[in-house]
């Protein structure tokens, strides 16, 4: 929870163009939870010259500034020989694959199921050929690399076989085969959400879009898939949804992370 709070404060500071505060909050978020590295990575990607109208030297300066959170974490990597103490000191974990797209398949499907009402609402209101292309591409990737059990726990001798509460509920309700079918629905919903929120919407929330993209790239290299690892990205998608043209046009108030003050 502290990491999530710091991450959201970093995003809010980015939206207000307060780079110094954003870097500070992102550093604190990263030191609370390592996977919050997607916050500075997303901000760095947006700051690269060519993505913004900022002059080249200013964009390069922002990239260097956003290296601060990552560089500040290097001493831990040197100490642990990895991004976490267990991963670097347990030789059994050397058998883990370096790239695990099946973790992204599960997390993306779970993301689509958690936000299924929003995906249905956005998908039903306006259909397009490109939206269908995104769904077919997501399903193709899902079939090519379907979710797998977490090898991590088996390697460390743990009896844990679940990927979180959602995984447990789906297995109880639909069985193992039925769970795969439900996750396929989730991956289609996730494709609709990301098309609507990252592609179709306007430039508002550009920092958030890059953070979401960095989040999924980061999970390609994760050791395991767990429902709780969606906690950082679900609120970000929610705030990005508030900036969607169809939602913001019908809203009577402007979305903001800052509380309303008298």
**Alpha carbon gap, first and last residue:** 28 Å
Uncertain residue ranges: none
Strand content: under 5%
Overall residue-averaged pLDDT value:
79
Which class do the helix and strand fractions yield?
mainly alpha
The tally of beta strands, per DSSP, is: 0
CA gyration radius, whole angstroms:
19 Å
**Quaternary assembly:** single chain
Strand count, sense and closure of the main sheet? none
Number of helices: 14
Helix content: 55-70%
Tell me, briefly, the overall form. globular
Order of helices and strands: HHHHHHHHHHHHHH
Structural summary, described in words:
The chain starts with a helix and ends in a 12-residue tail after the last helix. The mean pLDDT is 79. It is globular. Helix 9 packs antiparallel against helix 11 and helix 12 (206-219) packs antiparallel against helix 13. The chain has helices spanning 2-15, 19-32, 38-47, 56-65, 67-80, 85-89, 101-114, 116-125, 129-144, 151-155, 165-200, 206-219, 233-242, 245-250. The chain has 262 residues and is mainly α.
